[in-house]
Amino acid sequence: MAALSVNLNKIATLRNTRALEIPDLVHFGRIALQAGAHGLTIHPRPDQRHIRTGDVTRLTALWKNEFPQKEFNIEGNPFLGDYMKHIRDVRPTQCTLVPDSPEANTSDHGWTLTGPGSDNAKNLAPLIAEMKSLGCRVSLFMDAGISEQEVAAVKNLHADRIELYTEPYAASFTKPHFKTTLAGFAQTARAALAMGLHLNAGHDLNLANLPTLIQAIPQIAEVSIGHALIADALEFGLHDTVQKYMAACTAA
User: Which residues, in sequence order, are CB contacts of 47 under 8 Å at separation 6+?
Assistant: First the structure.
């Protein structure tokens, strides 16, 4: 089955609307892991709009002291803010690298590594090498439908995984062009697997569309889900919601 990593950003967003530690990220992170989630994901942005520096410290302690068998995934743009400092301090299980700009509302596209004017591969290379030297797994956020040259560039950077940016998949789920969109994701997945890369997926996945994605690409190793999962938790409670998403991950 695909592993489930619960993204805690939306809980932090709610917490940040008041000068209180309610809801408590550590408490809810613990519930998610106790319910069976394979890991936790956080995305500490430079403006700390949701995850704050102190959250990174406290959630690291939760992971290392109470759930060392689970995984800790830190997302972010490695060229911005304190991302690399967090990686050096924490040494998380996985670093998921996204090309977000500081003002982006959420991750909305993958990396471009080849082509005229792109220095991303050159600039990422030493940072990925450092992450690997710290014992971290590295995943690059990539669009579906990219060329084989783009996939090869991920491999040449010695990254371990591609995370498929699944917003286009989710947006097309009930539309006439859904099968065409899904075929593009499957094609990119095949290219990545053929080059020895592993697959993650994330963005706008939910209980309705997740099983179909897993059935189409059963090699997906991990899904990272936050927004829909936390919204569902308002209805079902976090413990039961995690278990529902775990069941959806077994759809293949």
Answer: 102
What tokens does 175 get? 């539309």
Q: What does the angle CA 30 – CA 48 – CA 231 come to, to the nearest 5 degrees?
A: 50
Cβ atoms within 10 Å, residue 230: 22
Q: Are 214 and 200 in contact (CB under 8 A)?
A: no
SS (H, E, C) 62-105: HHHHHCCCCEEEEEECCCCCCHHHHHHHHCCCEEEECCCCCCCC
- Whether 27 is catalytic: no
Annotated catalytic residue 75: yes
Q: Per the residue annotation, which of 38, 50, 71, 75 is the catalytic one?
A: 75
Question: Catalytic annotation on 86?
Answer: no
Q: Which of 71, 86, 203, 222 is catalytic?
A: 203
Superfamily of domain 3-248: Aldolase class I (3.20.20.70)
199 DSSP assignment: E
* Cβ atoms < 10 Å from Cβ of 224: 26
Per-residue pLDDT of the chain (252 residues; tens, 9 = 90+): 899 999 999 999 999 999 999 999 999 999 999 999 999 999 999 999 999 999 999 999 999 999 999 999 999 999 999 999 999 999 999 999 999 887 777 777 889 999 877 899 999 999 999 999 999 999 999 999 999 999 999 999 999 999 999 999 999 999 999 999 999 999 999 999 999 999 999 999 999 999 999 999 999 999 999 999 999 999 999 999 999 999 999 976
